[in-house]
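Batch manifest, entry 17 of 40.
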Amino acid sequence: MRRFRRRSARMNLMHFRVLTLRYFKQIGCGLGTLLPMLLQAPALLLILFLAGKGDAFTTHNVTQANLIAFMVIIMSALMGLLNSYREICKEREILSREVFGGLDTTAYVFSKFCVLGVVGVAQCTFLYFGSMIFVDYAFPHFSGYLFCFAAAVLVNLSVTTIGLFISALLKKSESAILPVLVLIIMQVVFSDCLISLGGAAGALRYITPAAWGVAVFGHASGINGWTELFHKEMYGYNPFACLATLAGITLFFLLATVLWLKHAYRQKN
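Output type: structure tokens
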């Protein structure tokens, strides 16, 4: 029994390596997949340049600073969602054959997340550091720059896993349009940035990745102290707690995707 477990673990690790290399090759060789991924960050950065004011943080312009933080986080989330929402459902037939041929679903999901994670980190790096060309964030402490970059990346990764979970639930990519729209709207409305909500609606911000990402920006820049007329509760949260929450959301939906696929293909056993 022990030999079987060690051998099974080695086999699963081999599946992970093979699938990861295969997906990287698919992205690199497929212009239809590679081109949108390459153009997403530059296109969104251009929109940020046109819509935001670069001196918002130095002049303590609350409205514009909130807008820039909102756009950076929402754009990070949007890239993660666009990269992932079709990844599993578009391969449903191939996945079925490979699973019944011995493929480990855990290795499959983790390989998807690994490849999309690398892509997401690269996109967020381009977006965030590219925005520094025309936006002076003027964070009081250098750690603020690191926290905000980590927030953009973790928002991207968390929404990527949510997209993978949605993709695992569906059998056709065309069916993903409605849940994707709902998820995008949720990130915008419940980000607790541009729209103030209370009661039950306000409680939804705590399960919204974008709200935790924006909270890191708000804390790093100290927006709550700029004027007595503006105060956001989440902007006062410890950035480590916000980042840990985003990491928890990422892990939760990653494991949920694995468990759902194991359930869907339980007849193999």
